[in-house]
Design brief:
This protein is of the alpha+beta class. It contains five helices and 13 strands. Strands 1-8-9-10-11-12-2-3-4-5-6-7-13 form a 13-stranded mixed sheet. Strand 5 and strand 6 form a beta hairpin. The longest helix has 20 residues. The radius of gyration is 19 Å and the shape is elongated.
Length: 248
């Protein structure tokens, strides 16, 4: 059961998050998950004459993202009308990750992947949906340590897997040639959008480091993912032993 939960968390993070970053399935609005509400970006202005081209912004943002050793993103995405909050911190190889996923009706779950193992924490709604045994339901806010077999699934929790799928869904011909300028969370950004405009998806990239700052999406698939902590030490650690229960 715990192995299935690890797979579920990885699949949800990768499929929903990446869909959120694709052309017309990328989210548009919404607050970040555990990071709290996100300040609105300032109004778009006409880019300076020396601004890079849209394809250059996309290419450099992709290159830098895929080369990153670690990163974080948080926000809301929508799948078939159901809103899901995602808060992700992790390394490119997936061996270290801290992921929290929450949605109405499915509950809230947190997965921590570290060299010592994979640990899963869920609320009552989440564990019931997984048909968890009574001992797990009684664990309240404690973590369950996944079996050793779950270690092979760490790749599904990787930042790189998410980014490859996300950028794989965006091609230069889907991007408008116009490049805008906005400030997001205090960061000056270049802004590129879908050919139909910002309402169908936008990518915000920092001017100084050409790092992804925000993905937003379409009216059909609303939501938002904000990125941070590129190449930083994320400080992810295993839960304290007193917060972990073992299953027979």
């Amino acid at each position: 059961m715990t192995t299935r939960v690890v797979a579920l968390a990885g699949a949800l993070t990768i499929s929903l998050g990446a869909a959120a970053c694709s052309k017309s399935e990328t989210p548009t609005t919404g607050a970040t998950g555990s990071a709290g509400s996100t300040p609105a970006a300032t109004s778009t202005t006409t880019a300076a004459a020396d601004a890079p081209t849209a394809s250059e912004v996309l290419d450099k943002a992709k290159t830098n993202a895929l080369a990153a050793m670690s990163g974080a993103f948080a926000g809301n995405v929508e799948d078939s009308g159901k809103k899901m909050a995602i808060d992700f911190k992790g390394t490119s190889d997936g061996k270290t990750a801290d992921i929290t996923i929450e949605s109405a009706g499915d509950g809230k779950a947190r997965v921590i992947s570290v060299p010592e193992g994979i640990f899963i924490q869920g609320d009552e709604t989440f564990w019931k949906k997984q048909n968890a045994p009574a001992k797990v339901l009684a664990a309240k806010d404690k973590f369950i340590k996944a079996p050793a077999s779950a270690a092979s699934m760490t790749e599904s929790l990787s930042l790189k897997a998410f980014l490859e799928k996300a950028f794989g869904a965006v091609t230069p011909d889907q991007v408008s040639s116009d490049v805008g300028e906005e400030t997001v969370n205090g960061i000056d950004c270049w802004v590129i959008t879908d050919t139909k405009g910002k309402t169908e998806g936008a990518l915000y990239v920092s001017k100084d480091k050409l790092e992804v700052v925000r993905f937003t999406g379409s009216a059909k698939s609303p939501g938002q993912l904000d990125f941070s902590k590129w190449n930083e030490d994320l400080g992810i650690k295993a839960p304290d032993a007193s917060q972990v229960i073992s299953l027979p």
